[in-house]
Amino acid sequence: MEYSIREVAKIIGSKSNLLHEDTITMLLTDSRTVSFPEQSLFFALRTKTNDGHKYIPELYKLRVRNFVVSEMPPSTDMYADANFLLVKDPLRALQQLAAHHRKKFDIPVIGITGSNGKTIVKEFLYQLLHTEFNIVRSPRSFNSQLGVPLSVWQINPKHTLGIFEAGISQPDEMERLQPIIAPTIGIITNIGEAHQENFISTRQKCLEKLQLFQDSEAIIYDGDNAFIANCIEAACLSHKAIAWSRTDSEAPLFIKSVDKQNDRTTISCTLLGYNRKYVIPFTDDASIENVIHCMALMLYLKPTSVNHEERFLHLEPVAMRLEVKQGINNCLLINDSYNSDINSLGIALDFLQTRQVDKAMKRTLILSDILQSGTLPKSLYKKVADLVQRKKIDRIIGIGRDLKEYGVAFEMEKEFYPSTTDFIQSPSFKNFQDEIILIKGSRRFHFEQITELLEKKVHETILEVNLDAIVHNFNYYRSRLKPETKMICMVKAYGYGAGSFELAKTLQEHRCDYLAVAVADEGADLRRTGISIPIIVMNPEFGSFNALFENQLEPEIYSFRLLEAMIRETERRGITSYPIHLKIDSGMHRLGFQPKDMQAICDCLKLQSGVAVRSVFSHLAGSDSSVFDDFTLKQIETFQKAASQLEQGIEYPVLKHILNSAGIERFAGYQMDMVRLGIGLYGVSASGQKGLRNVNTLKTTILQIQEVPAGDSIGYSRRSYVKRDSRIAIIPIGYADGLDRHLGNGAGQVLINGKRCPTIGNICMDTCMIDVTGIEVNEGDTVIIFGDELPVSELSETLGTISYEILTSISPRVKRVYFRE
Ligand SMILES: *Cc1c(COP(=O)(O)O)cnc(C)c1O
């Protein structure tokens, strides 16, 4: 579909002068995804973290000439031939344009909302209906304020059915999406607690979602869900509701029975008085519910052909992820097993562009025939070739008869094979080197065989560290402090187990003021890897003065013996005013000077010039618990007295600090000049704060699954017996990796495919066993020991210890893998 830029300006209500006439076919919101610059209209969106206006110069260089902005560029001289459409809110303008576009089409449009299953229902419907309709649908889960307009923009006159999903996270959002999708038929999948932060209640969220259907002629929903039924009534939508039910035989679609067999489920139902039986290739409850929504929709839409049963039997699972994996020979694999069509190919190619860090890497695409597209192959592959060329792919490997036949359209390095097996057996398969490879195939071509062979095999047990979460947590604490308060980040004990170097680099980048380590060697290691911000050493040893001075590490001084040794060393080396940090014991009774020592310290410091006090501090013994609040306040008072006595005695100002993570959370009024952030940085809140993000995920994979008959024992010393015939998964992590032996014999749980599974038998040195009876798991599946869904605090509670101990006990042989989202 084409719009003239003049038309667009009118639709979005921009009065700006247009320098020349242009035709727009593509809407652009991400500067990295340009493929047809001359026909693209860029919307400069402002988000919490970024501002699209920044990218205008770069886009102009790439020959984009049309921009929707909320602020004109400082000087338009350099953009002599560009149109700038000034509006108040570019996102709103994009939505207006999409809503206008939608109005031009009088076709049935299915709108899907709900907490879970939107994308799956959408894709199932596509599979069920694509032979009869020419369907336009949301790519992947494009269902946001931005995703919905971009999805709807794809409608063209050839389409005979639209399927779009809508998701919201705040009140008032659906009001904006409704006119863009304007669904004639609605499906509400279910309502859960997800994305609830901005709503007062689940009911408010549900009512908000139902606004999508205000002008629909029919709404499909689970009639047994009294909560949704009630909201539909409250929203005055009952007259068009089409409920399906497992209990009410009067319902338009009555589900009489759901019978699960091994790998399939038979659903018997009564459809307007007729009995029917459908077999589907799933057994999990979520899929069954999703399929029933689709049945109800089919009932309403009455597609003409009769072989519905057949279509349900051949439904295929929907894979949602774009995975990035380390490949052999320094290759990077991007594996996209999502539906193969030209839209999702475009998205995957854009993703590839954003992942390429090393410009020298060759870009390779492994693509299968695109099935079920409704376009003639010749023009389809011409379009694909065009797209692939625009996205700067260097080499295409095409698999399938159509690609082989129409491959001439590709003007780049190319190879074609009739089948996946032919490709794997070809000499070229052994020659991948330094490439970024996008693997995208229809399910029928079984590209997982390719991925498996190209994947680099690593030790299966890793600690994944989310650097974005570190930054988030750092900023979370920063936001609770005055802007001028300095922050020390504690990266002692190898960054609480997460590995100090990557963390230190990240923190330095985000302008942390100080780092603190336990011993001088840790500090020296950081210096060697390029950390230049000040570093404090908490436990300087007498033998480590060399390492201190050579690396500009600032010691914590806690006793007269250490203070005197330090002064002697500086004088011997001719150093003056070397920064030190004095520690006062205000009640913890670990290391530190006593408050009564202050006068003597001052006397000692006045007689020398080798060291200068940079800061004075103390440590709280119970800041995490309200039980100790009186004690904490007394510690603070003791410290403040001692600190001011010091300042008066030495006659120059020093930085004062006492708060650790829990202290910042609970006693921010005493932040003084500086705070010391530790465990909170790693995502664990001592006082139950909700705003932190998890940083560490300890994960491994299943090595083997064994079927064990009832009555047998598992593992060393025969500590656990299985009471029923069981499936036991063996995973490569044991106490030598830091998995505490007390988590054995069912005391601990792990997470596999979203399900909690208990350990069984004693934990061994390098492995342990998990009871996975009755759960859908396979060898090679990922196992989470702790992470987002299974917080490390749960393990520490089970073990009667604290998260600190679990994190710092993970053995160095467990590889740390860092990632940003
Ligand atoms: C470890 C440590 C901290 C950080 O404590 P958290 O409870 O992890 O925030 C602060 N100060 C001192 C002296 C420490 O040793």
UniProtKB/TrEMBL annotation:
Q: Which residues cross the membrane?
A: none
The protein's annotated catalytic reaction(s) are:
L-alanine = D-alanine
Pathway linked to the protein: Amino-acid biosynthesis; D-alanine biosynthesis; D-alanine from L-alanine: step 1/1
Name of the protein: Alanine racemase
For this chain, the family text in UniProt reads:
Belongs to the alanine racemase family.
Give the source species.
Answer: Parabacteroides chartae
- Annotated substrate binding sites: R590, M765
First-tier enzyme category under EC: isomerase
Q: Which GO terms describe its biological process?
A: D-alanine biosynthetic process
